[in-house]
Amino acid sequence: MADRSIISILIAQKLEISEQQWLKIETLVSLLKPLQVITSLLCGEKHSPTSMVRPLLKKLLDNHLKPQDNDDQSINYFKQTIISDIKERFNLEWDSESRVSIRQIASFLDPRYNNLDHESIIARESIRSSVISLLNNTETDAHNVNTRREPSLQKSALEFLYGDDVTEVNDLTTEFQNYLAEPQLKFDLNPFDWWKSRVDKYLGIGILAKKYLSIPARVAHQ
């Protein structure tokens, strides 16, 4: 724009960006940066499980795109547009007709997000109920509920007194309750290492976790 032999003064004046416009551009660029970061996290790493999608989007909306009182009209409009698009694209809003998604189940099975803090209270209950249903449909030799034990060579005194009618406790229910009581893993730790060290403790839930955490975040429809 400094070469007046190419651009006339009038055109140059029209092309020049004011200080206020530069500030607005810088603000827009800073707002776009978190979108670039989350895209890299979900699509660029070797394996980012789908369990990360909803928790990270919630952090994005709450920490980086929440409208502020000092936002001017254009910035506020930009934020509201992005927020609306993200919520619609990823079905982040929960209502009476919502159905539990693969991403929501995966987040519950990810020890970094098992508290489901990123979901509404009503959604949390539905997600947990869905996981319980999946557990009840999971067939493993280690989780035969109310079945007779194999005769053992050494029985405890109580087993001897109760005879052959000793039944197993519902191990799946116990597993589920124990998993709920687990402290949430720090967000930057590896959920796969966590599960690897607890494979014997959570046989039933572990099967579900292995299945759902193997789904990559970049899979479009979940």
Automatic annotation (TrEMBL):
Q: Which SUPFAM superfamilies match?
A: Ribonuclease H-like
Every HAT C-terminal dimerisation domain range: 175-217
Q: Coiled-coil intervals in this record?
A: none
Look up the signal peptide feature and give its range: none
Protein name per Swiss-Prot or TrEMBL = HAT C-terminal dimerisation domain-containing protein
Q: Which domain of life is it from?
A: Eukaryota
Q: Which GO terms describe its molecular function?
A: protein dimerization activity
Organism, by scientific name, is: Macrosiphum euphorbiae
Q: What is the lineage of its organism?
A: Eukaryota, Metazoa, Ecdysozoa, Arthropoda, Hexapoda
Q: Where are the transmembrane segments?
A: none
An example of a Gene Ontology BP annotation on this entry?
A: regulation of transcription by RNA polymerase II
Example GO CC term: the record gives: nucleus
